[in-house]
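Write out this protein's structure.
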Amino acid sequence: MARALGDIYRSLGVLRKSHLIEADRSQLVGGYVGQTALKTLDVCRSALDGVLFIDEAYSLSGSDWKGDFGREAIEALLKYMEDHRDRLIVIVAGYPTEMRRFVASNPGLASRFTKTIDFEPYDTAELCEIFRSMVKAQQYALPDGFEAKLTPWIEGARQDQQWGNARSMRTLLEKVREAHALRTSIDPEANIAEFEMVDIEAAIRER
């Protein structure tokens, strides 16, 4: 969505470019005094004339610890946005409740992020299809009927507050690959390009 908006804004002449820079807390916040503002500004400069997308932006304001530099990153970001308001689009994303707290944590955020788009979570069938497309992109094959195994797992796991929709499916795929690698390493006749149901079952149990 962020990339598509960049293309739209460029076609309208709002932006000179349509490139997208993705960042999270680790790219913006430093480990010691004075480092955070520099890191944040470097990221902002790389996105100039394009779109800066900050995922899980609420992590910048989620700590009350005085030694946390997340709020310093917010101040640097707001200053840069103000100074280059005609040359930069900033999109922040995260879970709805946490993002409302994030925007409310600083008056400057509330005045600059005035548009909110809520996306409905994917349903189970859509998540199975996302998993299938991820597997295909990595050039693996899935066993027939894998959806029947994934469906109850998805419906149970999505009740967890840490559920990440497509991100959780990506994490599951990593675990399936680990199980597949372990199984094929001890079976010389195994098809290294094909997942089996036992790989999916092992990954689900590990969660």
